[in-house]
């Protein structure tokens, strides 16, 4: 029996797969969307079951059928393993050697006590990474205003201090974004794996984990209370200002998604978390981790890189796979000597318990659906130049009532008033969202509301 590598169901590739064929009736670009995104976003029973069964058999996804992000990869413990495995000092020594070569890019002597326990090892990994990010921030030329930081430290009024902190945060995000704007977009390199200082030094680029490490260093200098925010498939900085306001600070994606949030504080498996809603932010549930626990994201990224190089999943972009294979080839001995997944699971057990909760897994599934829907209409916009995209946003924002009538009421009058570019965009969106509108109206309505907000944000 053939297995469709696009949906994981039984049947031949593409046209011979009944699950694919059914979804493709309403979504022609179905095969351009990542495998699990399709399974979750379109919720076809045969597709979802086929994809889940196939991927679990291949060992690529968790039992819940949800792939973890590179910074949050986890695997279940082998059946029957009731106790945490004791690790010999020689194994910890191999981790230190690999960490020095791959992550730091130079040899840093670890204290003898580091070999004695996982706790000591984890502390050294985090501390060495903090020191390296300090050096990296200097090397990349991110300057901090000493007088501004002193002004913040001297201010005793919580409201005024919070205002100064926020100004500093916005300036820091803008500085990081200036570098992000100059990333190589030619398609010859992927930033997917650039989350540790040695790799960032080489490419002068970084992913969300790298941006968070840089951002953490910049916020630390100003004395801003902050945490690592582990979202589904993403990592950010979360700041709590002196007046008690919470801020979602996304150094990778910039000012639009760096916003004040009004969260409910809660716990997941005993770990602190924030739950909130904002139309500009894809995430609603963020696990809070101490600001210095940067190593868990790097270890997870290393493990994901190894899997991608060895057994890339369906939908993995070629450039990500090739970049991973090249990196593994250059550091083959270290990847052969250390099981980064096992190390990550062992050192971050409590964090992964939170990822395994029903609430977090539901959030992962929801975010995958959001991201799959976000691709709808993107090809059409990519066919236009930047000025035309801005013009579409301006035109759409000026007729928001018409758009609402179109998406929520089926009234096509807006098409008669629209320019050909806007009409084409709206038709592409309607076609791409038709299936989810029929099967999951709540997700459809939420997506359209978010889309309208984002159109307004483009209008400048």
Q: Can you describe this structure?
A:
The chain has 460 residues and is an alpha+beta fold. The protein has three domains: 14-58, no CATH class; 137-360, no CATH class; 376-458, no CATH class. It is built from 21 helices and seven strands. The protein has helices at 18-24, 35-42, 45-58, 89-104, 118-139, 146-154, 158-180, 197-203, 208-221, 295-310, 318-330, 332-337, 340-347, 349-355, 358-374, 378-382, 386-398, 400-409, 413-417, 420-439, 441-458; strands spanning 225-231, 234-240, 246-249, 259-261, 264-268, 271-275, 285-290. A seven-stranded antiparallel beta sheet has the order 4-3-2-1-7-6-5, with helices on one face. Helix 4 packs parallel to helix 5, helix 6 packs antiparallel against helix 7 (158-180) and helix 17 crosses helix 21.
Task: Fill in the keyword field for this structure.
globular; 8% strand; 56% helix; 21 helices; 460 residues
Give a quick summary of the entry.
This protein has helices spanning 18-24, 35-42, 45-58, 89-104, 118-139, 146-154, 158-180, 197-203, 208-221, 295-310, 318-330, 332-337, 340-347, 349-355, 358-374, 378-382, 386-398, 400-409, 413-417, 420-439, 441-458; strands spanning 225-231, 234-240, 246-249, 259-261, 264-268, 271-275, 285-290. With 460 residues, the chain is of the alpha+beta class. It has three domains: 14-58, no CATH class; 137-360, no CATH class; 376-458, no CATH class.
């Amino acid at each position: 029996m053939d297995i469709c590598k696009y949906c994981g169901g039984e049947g031949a590739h593409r046209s011979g797969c009944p699950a694919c064929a059914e979804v493709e009736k309403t979504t022609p670009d179905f095969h351009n969307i990542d495998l699990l995104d399709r399974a979750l976003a379109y919720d076809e029973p045969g597709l979802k079951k086929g994809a889940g069964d196939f991927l679990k058999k291949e060992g690529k996804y968790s039992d819940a059928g949800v792939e973890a992000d590179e910074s949050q990869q986890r695997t279940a413990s082998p059946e029957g393993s009731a106790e945490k495995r004791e690790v010999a000092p020689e194994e910890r020594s191999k981790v230190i050697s690999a960490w020095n070569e791959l992550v730091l890019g130079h040899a840093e002597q670890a204290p003898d006590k580091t070999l004695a326990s996982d706790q000591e090892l984890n502390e050294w990994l985090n501390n060495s990474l903090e020191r390296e990010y300090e050096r990296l921030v200097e090397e990349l030329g991110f300057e901090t205003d000493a007088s501004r930081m002193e002004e913040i430290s001297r201010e005793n009024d919580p409201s005024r201090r919070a205002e100064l902190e926020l100004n500093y945060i916005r300036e820091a995000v803008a500085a990081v974004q200036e570098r992000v704007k100059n990333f190589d977009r030619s398609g010859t390199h992927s930033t997917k794996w650039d989350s540790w200082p040695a790799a960032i030094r080489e490419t002068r680029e970084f992913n969300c984990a790298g941006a968070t490490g840089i951002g953490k260093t910049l916020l630390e200098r100003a004395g801003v209370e902050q945490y690592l925010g582990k979202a589904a498939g993403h990592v950010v900085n979360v700041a709590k200002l002196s007046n008690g306001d919470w801020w979602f600070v996304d150094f990778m994606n910039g000012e639009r998604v760096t916003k004040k949030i009004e969260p409910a504080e809660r716990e997941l498996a005993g770990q602190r978390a924030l739950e909130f809603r904002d139309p500009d932010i894809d995430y609603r549930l963020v696990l809070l981790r101490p600001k210095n626990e940067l190593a868990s994201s790097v270890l997870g990224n290393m493990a994901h890189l190894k899997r991608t190089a060895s057994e890339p999943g369906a939908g993995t972009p070629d450039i990500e796979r090739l970049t991973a294979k090249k990196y593994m080839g250059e550091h083959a001995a270290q990847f052969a000597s250390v099981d980064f997944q096992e190390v990550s699971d062992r050192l971050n057990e409590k964090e992964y318990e939170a990822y395994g909760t029903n609430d977090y897994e539901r959030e992962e599934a929801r975010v995958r659906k959001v991201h799959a829907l976000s691709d709808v209409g993107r090809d059409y916009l990519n066919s236009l130049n930047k000025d035309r995209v801005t013009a579409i946003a301006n035109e759409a924002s000026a007729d928001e009532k018409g758009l609402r009538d179109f998406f929520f009421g089926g009234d096509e009058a807006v098409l008669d008033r629209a320019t050909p570019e806007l009409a084409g965009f709206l038709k592409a969106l309607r076609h791409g969202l038709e299936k989810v509108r029929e099967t999951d109206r709540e997700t459809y309505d939420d997506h359209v509301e978010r889309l309208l907000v984002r159109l307004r944000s483009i209008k400048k």
